[in-house]
Predict the structure.
Amino acid sequence: GEDVEQSLFLSVREGDSSVINCTYTDSSSTYLYWYKQEPGAGLQLLTYIFSNMDMKQDQRLTVLLNKKDKHLSLRIADTQTGDSAIYFCAESTGNTPLVFGKGTRLSVIA
Amino acid sequence: DVKVTQSSRYLVKRTGEKVFLECVQDMDHENMFWYRQDPGLGLRLIYFSYDVKMKEKGDIPEGYSVSREKKERFSLILESASTNQTSMYLCASSSTTGLRYEQYFGPGTRLTVT
């Protein structure tokens, strides 16, 4: 079945760039998503990328997709303490539930 | 903005009690989902529904049931709560129109079973 893998932890200094990586297995993925979960809250959709795109930029966020390697990354420029959260990668292959990774906990050190 | 609300943020129940978790969305979405989230295990899908009165089992349906009598409301039922059901429960909804099926999440209910 489909699987989405992420590293569990990432620690960066305030002002540096963060890069969160994700790999997925289903080559028929149409859209890939990044969600953010702040402590004690639900998941908030951050951004998404369509599978025929290589890159998408949205202010401090850059999403890179390597479809050949089934690799997705989220880069956060100028990381701030407010970016500390759990980040989930998810894939969609149609009108079925999204398949989520286990989440990467980003810690930003002041 | 899509709004998904859940009936309680925190809930404490005793072992053996019947527990109802309610979820309501205001965007006329066809799909609704229930997940539980535990440290190190990520999100695990319990049940989902594509339409009123329809339900599909997710990855971990044992010990749970669901009800969807109205399009906007999806209830998760723990028939006889057990301590291993202590968890964060997240509800989500999504639309079936277009090609994007991103899910919108509620704030979660942290359930403790003692």
Q: What stands out?
A: The mean pLDDT of chain A is 93.
